[in-house]
């Protein structure tokens, strides 16, 4: 880990403040003053700020049952709705980010972390990480088989240059469907269903990759992911 990143994970310092301290010669690694912010630490290295030894807060991974009425924004961002990060009562919540986004009127599984590389593997369309949504729709689909075929073949959405990747459509009952997609375009599920002739009344995400939202996790509640869950989500199939 870079020295400046270590400081950010072990103190309340911003990245710019950490770099300034390092440049000023206030940080020691073992007994040596290091003035290079990009200095690479070994796991056994001891880092000191003055006489105080610093200890890194490890990377964190959370599953949140997102309720409606919250936005996927940073804590310091003011929007029409409060940030979902305000639901997590943890230290340094301002350093966390959501893995992708859910609209304010959408509920369900939301992952939260401070590991940018891990979140990229889940959100990048180059990695085939499936997201599963359940949607209540205004009117039944007029031709279910044609809709399923269209999803599998890809739908050309308005304003897009490429059709959607193959998606799987399942009918739960006439006004409730389940849609599995492998990308995250802007309002993708809502736009796909609009192209199929209906409108979304409510949207709920049930699953990301192999991870299914806990049935006993109430809206607004969160839990830490296990090491196995983190590793499973970090190993999607990459598209060449």
UniProtKB/TrEMBL annotation:
Residues 1-63 form the RNA-binding S4 domain. GO terms for molecular function: 23S rRNA pseudouridine(2604) synthase activity; RNA binding. It holds the Pfam family S4. It catalyses: uridine(35) in tRNA(Tyr) = pseudouridine(35) in tRNA(Tyr); uridine(2604) in 23S rRNA = pseudouridine(2604) in 23S rRNA. It comes from the Bacteria. CDD domains: PseudoU_synth_RsuA, S4. GO terms for biological process: enzyme-directed rRNA pseudouridine synthesis. InterPro entries: PsdUridine_s_RsuA/RluB/E/F_cat, PsdUridine_synth_cat_dom_sf, PsdUridine_synth_RsuA/RluA, PsdUridine_synth_RsuA/RluB/E/F, PsdUridine_synth_RsuA/RluB_CS, RsuA_PseudoU_synthase, S4_RNA-bd, S4_RNA-bd_sf. The keyword Transcription does not apply. Its EC number is 5.4.99.-. Keywords: Isomerase, RNA-binding. It is an enzyme of class 5 (isomerase). Belongs to the pseudouridine synthase RsuA family. This is Pseudouridine synthase. It comes from Allopseudospirillum japonicum.
């Amino acid at each position: 880990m870079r020295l400046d990143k270590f400081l950010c994970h072990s103190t309340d310092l911003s990245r710019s403040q950490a770099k300034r301290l390092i440049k000023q010669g206030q940080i020691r690694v073992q007994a040596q003053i290091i003035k290079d912010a990009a200095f690479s630490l070994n796991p056994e290295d001891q880092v000191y700020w003055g006489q105080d030894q610093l200890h890194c807060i490890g990377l964190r991974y959370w599953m949140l049952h997102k309720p409606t009425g919250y936005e996927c924004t940073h804590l310091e961002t003011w929007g029409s709705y409060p940030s979902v990060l305000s639901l997590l009562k943890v230290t340094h919540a301002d350093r966390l980010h959501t893995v992708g986004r859910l609209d304010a009127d959408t509920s369900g599984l939301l992952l939260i972390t401070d590991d940018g590389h891990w979140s990229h593997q889940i959100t990048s369309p180059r990695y085939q990480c499936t997201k599963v949504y359940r949607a209540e729709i205004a009117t039944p689909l007029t031709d279910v088989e044609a809709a399923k075929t269209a999803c599998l073949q890809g739908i050309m959405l308005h304003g897009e240059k490429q059709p959607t990747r193959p998606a799987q459509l399942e009918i739960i009952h006439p006004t409730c469907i389940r849609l599995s997609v492998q990308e995250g375009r802007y309002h993708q599920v809502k736009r796909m269903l609009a192209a199929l002739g209906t409108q979304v009344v409510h949207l709920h995400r049930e699953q990301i990759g192999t991870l299914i939202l806990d049935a006993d996790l109430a809206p607004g509640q969160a839990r830490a992911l296990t090491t196995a869950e983190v590793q499973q989500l970090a190993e999607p199939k990459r598209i060449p």
